[in-house]
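Filed under: proteins

Residues; backbone shape codes:
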Amino acid sequence: MKEKLLLVHINTHQVIIKRRVCWIHHVTGVWVYPLLEHLSPGVKIIFFAAVTVVINIFYVMGEVLNNYIWDTQKCEYCFRNINA
């Protein structure tokens, strides 16, 4: 459940950032990232969706690695030294 809530929070944050990028272009006429200037509107949508997927994959990989490294059963030595 915690992971789902964090993914929702991350996706919400990503939407806010993407809206700001588009808003800056709307106000100034300049894209924050020059790559976006050369992409058509449909490709921009695909680009933003792909970036969202990649960020979520990295987040989940980080959670898996973090849980693997700091698993309490595997790291009994670490917790013994902290409690001592």
